[in-house]
User: Fold this.
Amino acid sequence: MEGRRGIVDPSSVPTETIQLLKPDGTLVPDTGYEADLKKDDLLEIYRYMALARRADLEGTNLQRQGELGVYTPLIGQEAAQVGTGYALDEGDWIFPSYREMALAMMRKIDPVDILHLFRGTWHGGMWDPKEHRFAMYSVPIATQALHAAGFAIAAKLDGAKTVALGCFGDGATSEGDFHEAMNFAGVWQAPVVFLCQNNQYAISLPLSKQTAAPTIAVKAIGYGFPGVRVDGNDVLACYVVAQEAVRRAREGNGPTLIEAVTFRIGPHSTADDPTRYRTQDEMDHWGALDPISRFSKYLELEGIITDEFKQKVDDEAKELATHIRAEIVGAGPRPAHELFEFVYSEPSDILRREEWLLYEELAGRDEEGD
Ligand SMILES: Cc1ncc(C[n+]2csc(CCOP(=O)(O)OP(=O)(O)O)c2C)c(N)n1
Assistant:
């Protein structure tokens, strides 16, 4: 078939990933990429990854102890999130799905405010999206790709230099919203970076049943912009790839789709039992590629990290876990009227009536001594 004009052959698509750090923590030679990170940046990246892992563990523990209704762990995906997040400017916006605890923490969102969402204390998480430039968690998959694309188009029309990052998983790429977002972003040359954390499964559905495409990155070509496949467990590779994509977006050269090839070490959510669909061999394979130990080995080999620094981060992580636990365990409901605030800037008549009915009901209960 080779040589026949007009045929695009899936088998010609490159499937290797961009990698800067080998699993043993040594550098890959001649990648053509160099991370412009100073010692303090490298240590900060390590710190974010370690703190996110500890906060995440606390989320899982609290759910197992009945303090949260459900929780969606990110363990294993720290490099994809922290590497990408580190390439953004403070004013750029992030549109997360429901597994972006590390990115949220980089935006100074208290993990407690995310866990309240999983406790059911509050419907969309308890942070101010404008203050943190971090939108609400999104449970309907792929919808946030549209929000990111729409936001980026608006930023472009406003003449702002803001970049939007839309985060989703491999499963989300089968949704219509994903394709609509990619298409519209391409047509408008929108300043958006799409980050697909390909963690191999959409709940129990493996990637091989999700798509027949050779990679997810290649899908970008169909919409007229570049796709990049990166080792999602290599934080330096994730950083340089995201940095290039963010620069392209900011300079007016349109979107990029990043496929960060990684693995979800934990369950899809605490309601899931991954032993039903994953083998121990698979777990062992990916366990050996753990993003934090790989980066830690690199920092040790380069003499960048000391035991003292590691201990300091460890102590901070313990304090964070204690703080999360203290805020979540036994946290009561929020005041009922909050259900009606923040819905519309001008509440509709129906909403006002519903609010009035709720107050009536609550007052009735009080009178009955409930
Ligand atoms: C529109 C929509 N359809 C179905 C679901 C049910 N659902 C929840 S998570 C999930 C799989 C998502 O997998 P992926 O996009 O790979 O993200 P991951 O959970 O692996 O991070 C599905 C189908 C949903 N939340 N939203």
The radius of gyration is 22 Å. The chain has a mean pLDDT of 95.
